[in-house]
Amino acid sequence: MSRAGFDPELDLMIERVIRAPRATVWRAWTDPARFARWWVPAPAVCRVERLEVEPGGAMVTQLSEDGSRFQPHLEATFLRVEELDRIVFTNVIDSGWRPANPEPIAMTAEITLADHTDGTDYRIVVRHGDPASRARHAELGFADGWGTVAGQLAALVEGEVAQ
Fold first, then answer.
1. Taking every annotated instance into account, which residue ranges of this chain make up the domain Activator of Hsp90 ATPase homologue 1/2-like C-terminal (predicted)?
2. How far is CA 35 from CA 98, 116, 117, 127, 137, in A?
3. pTM given for the model
4. Could you tell me if residue 51 is inside a domain?
5. Is there a contact between 110 and 124 (Cβ–Cβ < 8 Å)?
6. Tens place of pLDDT for every residue, the chain, 163 residues?
7. Within-domain flag for 35
8. Which residues contact residue 31 at a Cβ distance below 8 angstroms, ignoring those fewer than 6 apart?
9. CA dihedral for 26, 30, 31, 32, sign (positive or negative)
10. For a 10 Å CB count at each end of the chain, is N or C smaller?
11. Residue 53: inside a domain, yes or no?
C-alpha cells in the first residue's frame, strides 16, 4: 500500500533515515542472527524461532527480560516481501496459517526501504482494524517500542557500515 494509503484514524507510523545502504538494512531484517540483535527493546533479549522472509513465511520470536526465561513475543506471517523494498507481516494469521486472536493488538505492519542521500529512508506503518485498537497500541507505547527498535536497527547497521 502506498503512502497515500496511510489512514491517521487507523494507522501509526515511524520514519527515520538510517545511515546505511538498503542492502545492509535488508540483511538485518532477513538474517535471524542480526534480527535477534535489534528486534526487542534492550535490555530485553530476543530469540528468533522462525524467520522465513517470504510471502506466507513464519515470523516467530520470543522475548526474555532476564536473558534466561523466554516467553512468546510475536507469532506472525509474512504477507508480502519485495526484496530490498518492502516487508509486510501480520499477527492476525499465525505461523501455521491459522486465524489468530493476538493480544494485546491485532495488526499488520508494513516496512518500506527507499534510497536516501544519506543511506536508507526507513518507514514503518502499522495498520489496525479500528480506531480503538490504534489508540490502544499508541497507549501501550508504539512510538517508544517501535521507535526504540528502529534505533537499535540503525545502530546495528550503521556500526556494520563504519567497520
1. 19-158
2. 24, 22, 25, 22, 22
3. 0.94
4. yes
5. yes
6. 445 679 999 999 999 999 999 999 999 999 999 999 999 999 999 999 999 999 999 999 999 999 899 999 999 999 999 999 999 999 999 999 999 999 999 999 999 999 999 999 999 999 999 999 999 999 999 999 999 999 999 999 999 998 8
7. yes
8. none
9. positive
10. C
11. yes
39: its cell numbers: 528486534
User: 8 φ, ψ to 5°?
Assistant: -65, -15
Q: Which residue has the cell 524467520?
A: 51
